[in-house]
Write a structure and sequence with these properties.
Layout lengths: L20 E6 L14 H10 L3 H8 L2 E10 L20 H5 L9 H17 L1 H6 L7 E12 L1
Antiparallel strand pairs: 1-3, 2-3
Length: about 150
């Protein structure tokens, strides 16, 4: 085995060779802007920690990077939290929550608190007073973004 005397060279922090790429992700700075944060902040805190900053992703992709928010249709059938922006009742269904893995990172007490609070606010009309406009809004622009890289 060869022995090396002296300082070890640090790896270069040069950007990678630009590649063409498209990534659908969430912007962690925007995740907590969703109404769910008022009911289950632990879920969206866990979600936000899972996504790298968009700037980090852009650096890793290299080249010319553009980003854009993705409009989520009201009747979206995918199982992520923001897909239920105008259909909060869906998130009271444990099966719907299971489709979004961030729910698995919170404890039973937080899930039970969410169920009680959202149920109460739906029955009293409090949710609709604050967020009812989402029920008829054709799309929702939340944290979902598309990142495009070209050489």
């Amino acid at each position: 085995m060869a022995r090396r005397d002296g300082p070890v060279a640090k790896p270069s922090h040069q950007p990678p060779i630009p590649a063409v790429g498209v990534v659908l992700t969430c912007d962690p700075r925007l995740v907590r802007d969703f109404w769910l944060y008022e009911y289950a902040p632990e879920v969206l805190d866990a979600e936000a920690r899972r996504y790298p900053p968009i700037e980090t992703m852009a650096f890793a992709l290299g080249g010319t990077v553009t980003t854009g928010r993705v409009a989520i249709p009201l009747d979206c059938t995918d199982g992520f939290n923001e897909a239920y922006d105008g259909r909060p009742e869906m998130l009271l269904d444990p099966a719907a929550r299971q489709a979004c893995s961030a729910w698995s990172f919170i404890d039973d007490a937080a899930r039970e608190r969410f169920d009680r609070m959202l149920s109460r606010h739906l029955q009293s009309g409090a949710w609709d007073e604050r967020f009812g406009h989402l029920r008829t809004q054709a799309t929702y622009e939340g944290s979902l973004v598309i990142v495009r890289a070209t050489p």
